[in-house]
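Q: Predict the bound structure with iron/sulfur cluster.
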Amino acid sequence: MKTNKLLLGDEALAIAACDAGVKAFYGYPGTPSTEIFEAGEKYVKNLNDGRIAEWAANEKVAYEFALGTSYTGYRSVVTMKHVGLNVAFDAFINSAITGIQGGLVVAVADDPGMHSSQNEQDTRFLADFAQLPLLEPSTPQEVYDFTVEAFALSEKLKLPVVVRLVTRLAHSRGEVFALKTSLKPGSVGIPPTSEIYNWVLVPSIARVRYRELRKKLPALYEEAQKFNSLQTFQSAQIGVVTSGMGSAYFHQYKKNNNISDEKYNHLNVKAYPLDINLLLSLIKKSDAIYVFEENYPYLEDMLIPYCKGKCDVHGRRDQTLPVDGELNISLIRQALENRQLDSIVDENLFAQISSLIEIRPPKLCEDCGHRDAFNDITSALKNIGVDDPRIFGDIGCYSLGVQPPHNAIHTCVEMGASLSMAFGAAMAGMSPSIGIIGDSTFFHSGMPTLLSAAKVKLNINLIIMDNAIVGMTGQQAPVASDIAPLIARATGFSEQQIYLLNPLPQKSEENVKQLEQIFMRDEPSLIIFKRKCIIAMQRKLYLSEKKEALHA
Amino acid sequence: MRENPTFGLVVAGVGGQGAITIAQLILGAVWMDGYHVLQSEVHGMSQRGGEVSAHIIFSKDPVMSPTIEEGDADLLLGLEPLETLRHLKYLKKDADIITSMTTIENMENYPSSKKILNLLKSIDGVKMIDSDLIAKDIHFSHKGNMTLLGYASNYLPVNEEVWDKAIKERFKNKGNKMVDKNLHAFNTGRKLINNENSVYQ
Ligand code: SF4
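A: Predicted complex:
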């Protein structure tokens, strides 16, 4: 793309990929990564030169799509949030051993502070475990630059390269200067005959390939070294290690306070694996070292053993910084100066405000069908004598059913867990056992449970909240709709075990009656509450899809 | 003194109110006027009604942090009084605070709106604007935000023509009528600076 623009970190990644000649975007929606794919999809449409943007049923499948495209010699990006990489982990680990053909960039967005996630796991550990290179930008411009370089690096090392974003970067908008020229997608060809067995990880080959991967490590260190920088000064006694947003905040902290660069020895880490010699040089020059990184103490833990008896390390381990949550400039100031800025809120005002500030939690939309479905389910349970129900839940808008007045969701662990946990509970004697899942989450990883559930004579009730859209992440089209009953039939559910209900207020009485009966039966049932997402309707998403389908 | 000062602005509101649209308008205008900018947006879950805020930082020098340190912001634009209160901690001692007076009470334990407004009134630097009422007066009832932004523009180092351009660009795909309405709401707000009576301070 030609000129400079204001872009989200997520968008910068997508545009960089296009400019680097990417053939395909694959992914599964997940905050804060969703906008990478969405921006990619938009550009793919505009460029109209044979590129691909395709959501997959889950991250593992998306990863394998990308690996397959790479096999044909084309460049691809696969996008996911941090916990999505857990789902794709098998493919991720083993693609390090097969290696790649066309450049493969794995764009993963971590969520320190858990703005919209169930944990704040740190992707650097996963890349480390897979022995893959990882780049960690700290501004939208770096996201762009590093993504372009990631493709070249991927093809040079013949390995997937991870680009790690965090929420604050994924959702930060800033100026990005793009390359003047944009590459068209081109293929480096499928693996040549001489390498045809590299991809077949049967043990005899896998042993050889794994050794090859280990042999690449020096090259990985060497490449990472080109991104990382260490500045030491005669006058400085304190060392600072930063990466990602830690670098951004530390830089701004110095700038805002006119602090000279020479006050601190500074190791700025932008790429991994990190050469230990950089740490050793920093340790030699410093009496104490502060580590500002998002979000697990990854660099800090590398540093600590080498510092024993030589210098103190301050960060999340010694509680100079909180053990969890996002970094910010205040925390850096607190660590380095042991003070905070005076704000307009003095003690007196603070006392007055604190009594008034209440949390304003997100809620299910006012007329959302999930509300009606929850009402129907809890009323039916009450009527059959279950006053204090325990319902297995999943990840989506309907997770908010945990809130009053519904109090209808009692677990939320990871994608797909609702149905399988309900099965496990039913096996152990819970009756009725109920699992609630959304349609997209069902296709993501709920489906396999049907195979087991169809075979048992237990009171297990699998409920799909079907709005034919991925609601929570901004209403993306799901990979499929309307086929859940067919799949259930194929796995062995009879027609009498499959129920389609319409969660509308005027249908409530009828629904409750039917649910009472279903919840009393000692057999598996699949219940589908079918109603469209209000927001998606307001955005006319269902309509435009239909129109597009007609024109297709 | 910083050689080229960094200016920090917080926009706060409730999901569905358009806080991010307002923030993006400001960001675009400041950028068009030649500043380096960075903005942190909240793109959380898509359901309505939670807290939404954006930080905007700009300077003639490059900026790297997309979030503002507590106690370092120069201006707060609050689209809802409780959210204004919530984000006060980001402000410098002599910062300006511009807030709407219309509460959005979408939670059971919403505190007394009278207490909130009285407390806001008692704080130095607060300008309270009944932006929804003013917008209604100009027959543009759902555009209180634009009126508020118009007033806030007096506190931002951006030229009038640049605001014009930014607003036109933002709304041009919604048709000329929408552009004009938004410009009118913006300008009505901008002129309030000359009309002390409609600003409670
Ligand atoms: S976005 Fe859609 S699915 Fe989610 S709460 Fe709102 S109406 Fe329901």
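A: Confidence is low (pLDDT under 50) at residues 547-552 of chain A.
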